Amino acid sequence: MNSLVFPIICILLFRNSLATFDDDLQTILDFYDPKGTKCVFNQSEITSKTIDFFPKCQKVYGLIIINSNTDFSLAQLSKVFENMTALYGGIKVENSNLTSLSFLTVFMFTKFDLYCETYGVFIENNRYLNDAQQLKSINQIAGEATKECKFRVENNPKLNMEDVCRYYGLASTTVLEASGNKKECGITFFPNNHLQYNRSSGCQGNQINTTSISEFKKCTTTYNGLQFSNISDVSSHLSKIDFINGPINIQNSDIQN
Question: What is the reported pLDDT for 189?
Answer without folding.
Answer: 40
